[in-house]
Amino acid sequence: MDTDVRLNLYRRLSGLIEASELEETISEISDRFGPPPREVENLFALLSVRLILKRLKIIKLDVGDRVLTLTFSDNGAVDPARMVEKIHQMPNRFQLISGNKLNIRVGRLSLPEDFHKIEKAVSMLEVDAALEP
């Protein structure tokens, strides 16, 4: 692939805001260049997680061996009452560390193969954010 084409695609991918835009871009890339190699699929998975983090106003994601630590901005998109409810419903999965930090236990992670585990765990909070009035 031509370097200019590749750089243009990277720029487009870095500027995505919505999951639908990512899906359209993935489809376009697949149509244009064929099935992407594993490294490109990993990039798509990382971008999908990144989009969720942006929507939830999570400013930092630390990935440990078995735990994700999320740091929310002061004006996060997840309703604090719903987060407390989720923590009480699933205390073995969620642990509030401080006012703006949350641990999510996800089991053993091996990156980049387990981006889908990260996406699934973080998207559990996205569902709650979508329910906000």
The count of DSSP E runs of length 2 or more, i.e. the number of strands, is 4
- Biggest sheet overview: 4 strands, antiparallel
What share of the residues does DSSP label as strand, in percent? 15-25%
Principal-axes shape call: elongated
Spatial order of strands in the largest sheet = 1-2-4-3
Number of helices: 5
**Helix percentage:** 40-55%
Task: Write down the overall mean pLDDT.
Answer: 86
Distance between the termini: 46 Å
Q: Which residues sit in consecutive blocks of at least 5 with pLDDT less than 50?
A: none
Alpha carbon gyration radius: 16 Å
- The topology string of helices and strands comes to HHHEEHEEH
* Helix/sheet category: alpha+beta
Q: How would you characterize this protein structure?
A:
This protein is an alpha+beta fold and 133 residues long. 53% of the residues lie in helices and 17% in strands. A four-stranded antiparallel beta sheet has the order 1-2-4-3. The longest helix has 18 residues, at 38-55. The N and C termini lie far apart (46 Å).
Question: Strands, helices and their partners?
Answer:
Elements: H1 3-14, H2 19-33, H3 38-55, E1 58-63, E2 67-72, H4 80-89, E3 94-98, E4 101-105, H5 115-130
Summarize the entry for a quick read:
By secondary structure, the protein is of the alpha+beta class.
What structural keywords apply?
single chain; elongated; alpha+beta; 53% helix; four-stranded antiparallel sheet; 133 residues
